[in-house]
């Protein structure tokens, strides 16, 4: 069982998590021998949070409940409230998870939060474009490790800019190894282009009992 912890905070950018939560929760395109995954929302308290889209989420657990294990994963979505000091606890936990070999996935504003804590100083990463982290992070020292690409998966860190939720999700699913490789490629191509030929390719990659 792999636990996927998703940190939730006020003004969370809903769209950045849409693809990944839908696919991991529904399992609709999982391969037959895929590992079991469990999604848990986590926050600094059990108080409901309000997303940027106005949705209410009640966290499942506290930050202290996170099991630091290389088999688990932490997702950090973007939000307008990452500068609040109360979020430093989850960033420290993210550092612990990376040290333990667990995968940490950050997108948009969450990459800035990691940069502020020095976690990106010596790890290949990307964000919302060249120069963005220098603007928003006064102590950012990771410029030499910045890669100007949409989404970067390096070792056990996956980072992306705010417009790259689809590719970020593809790399997360690839890391978890829950889709067959041809399923993942067809899935990505379909949602990336909208071309129906990729939908039919996708259906052909699935076990027969998943095609209806």
C-alpha Rg (nearest Å) = 17 Å
Largest sheet: 7 strands, mixed
Query: What helical percentage do the residues reach?
Result: 25-40%
- Estimate what percentage of residues fall within beta strands: 15-25%
Distance between the termini: 27 Å
Tally of strands? 9
Strand order of the largest sheet: 5-2-1-6-7-9-8
Helix/strand class:
alpha/beta
Shape: globular
Mean pLDDT: 95
Quick rundown:
The protein has helices at residues 15-26, 88-100, 109-116, 132-136, 165-176, 181-193, 196-204; strands at 2-7, 37-43, 49-50, 56-57, 61-62, 73-76, 103-107, 151-154, 157-160. The protein is an alpha/beta fold.
Write up this protein:
There is one protein chain. The protein is of the alpha/beta class and 212 residues long. The protein is built from seven helices and nine strands, in the order E-H-E-E-E-E-E-H-E-H-H-E-E-H-H-H. Strands 5-2-1-6-7-9-8 form a seven-stranded mixed beta sheet, with helices on both faces. Strands 3-4 form a two-stranded antiparallel sheet.
């Amino acid at each position: 069982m792999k636990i996927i912890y998703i940190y939730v905070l006020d003004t969370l950018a809903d769209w950045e998590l849409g693809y990944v939560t839908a696919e991991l929760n529904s399992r609709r395109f999982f391969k037959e021998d895929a590992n079991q995954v469990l999604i848990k929302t986590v926050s600094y308290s059990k108080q409901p949070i309000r997303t940027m889209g106005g949705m209410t989420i009640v966290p499942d657990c506290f930050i202290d409940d996170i099991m630091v294990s290389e088999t688990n994963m932490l997702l950090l979505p973007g939000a307008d409230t990452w500068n609040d000091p109360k979020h430093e606890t989850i960033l420290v936990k993210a550092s612990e998870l990376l040290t333990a070999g667990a995968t940490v996935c950050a997108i948009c504003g969450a990459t800035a939060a990691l940069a502020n804590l020095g976690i990106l100083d010596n790890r290949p990463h990307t964000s919302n474009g060249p120069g963005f982290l220098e603007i928003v992070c006064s102590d950012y020292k990771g410029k030499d490790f910045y890669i100007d690409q949409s989404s970067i998966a390096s070792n056990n860190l996956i980072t992306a800019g705010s417009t790259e939720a689809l590719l970020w999700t593809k790399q997360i699913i690839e890391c978890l190894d829950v889709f067959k490789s041809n399923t993942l490629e067809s899935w990505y191509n379909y949602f990336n282009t909208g071309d129906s030929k990729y939908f039919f390719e996708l259906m052909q990659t699935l076990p027969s009992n998943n095609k209806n």
